[in-house]
Task: inverse folding
């Protein structure tokens, strides 16, 4: 079963609790939280305080995507705030093994992400240790960007590598996922789909948007 992870980056932050409750009611699987530090990516978004606030409003796993430099300095705070999955960027850490062990030591699921132009081969060694591999399908930093089409081949490559080695970690994709790209990434082998604009974008009704995405991938 394909999992849907609405990204709150595109939500109405003045009504975050209600928006997340609507996602849960519509059958979302995770709540994806985009943490940006103004260094790894240009924008600054949210920190552990918002994760803690969300924790009190939903039973869904909080899938926290750390687009930050020196993630090792913050993982404990995100763990204490109630994150379930902590994903760090390969490009932001040269000590990934230690970092993953620390995330798991906090009792959390560990994810590693790579940017569109970072090759799948760069995370080959990490695969035995992680619960989730996140392939960015746009350059991280902003919502509502266009899916980079060549990422379909990259998803297939990651899928083959995981299958060939027998690793069962989730394969998540993030950026430009909508009713058109969702079936394509699923056909390529993705198992978790992050969607911001497609769920919370202007004029969209959250429940209907999630149902539509679900229909396109099942
Ligand atoms: C981008 C973030 C994404 C973003 C996706 O850097 O990691 O999670 O919210 O937004 P959409 O679905 O609008 O491309
Ligand atoms: Zn994200």
Result:
């Amino acid at each position: 079963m394909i999992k849907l992870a609405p990204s709150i980056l595109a939500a109405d932050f003045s009504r975050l609790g209600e928006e997340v409750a609507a996602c849960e009611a519509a059958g979302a699987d995770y709540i994806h939280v985009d943490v940006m530090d103004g260094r790894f990516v240009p924008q600054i978004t949210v920190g552990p305080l918002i994760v803690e606030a969300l924790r009190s409003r939903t039973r869904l796993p909080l899938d926290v995507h750390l687009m930050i430099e020196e993630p090792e300095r913050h993982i404990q705070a995100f763990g204490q705030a109630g994150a379930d999955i902590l994903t760090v960027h390969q490009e932001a850490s040269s000590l990934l093994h230690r970092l993953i062990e620390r995330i798991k030591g906090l009792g959390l699921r560990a994810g590693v992400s790579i940017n569109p132009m970072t090759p799948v081969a760069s995370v080959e060694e990490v695969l035995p240790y992680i619960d989730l591999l996140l392939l960015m399908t746009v350059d991280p930093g902003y919502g509502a960007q266009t899916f980079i089409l060549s990422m379909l081949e990259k998803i297939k490559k990651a899928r083959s590598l995981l299958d060939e080695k027998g690793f069962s970690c989730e394969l998540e994709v993030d950026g430009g996922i909508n009713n058109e790209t969702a079936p394509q990434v699923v056909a390529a082998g993705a198992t978790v789909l992050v969607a911001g604009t497609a769920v919370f974008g202007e004029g969209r009704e959250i429940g209907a948007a999630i149902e539509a995405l679900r229909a396109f991938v099942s």
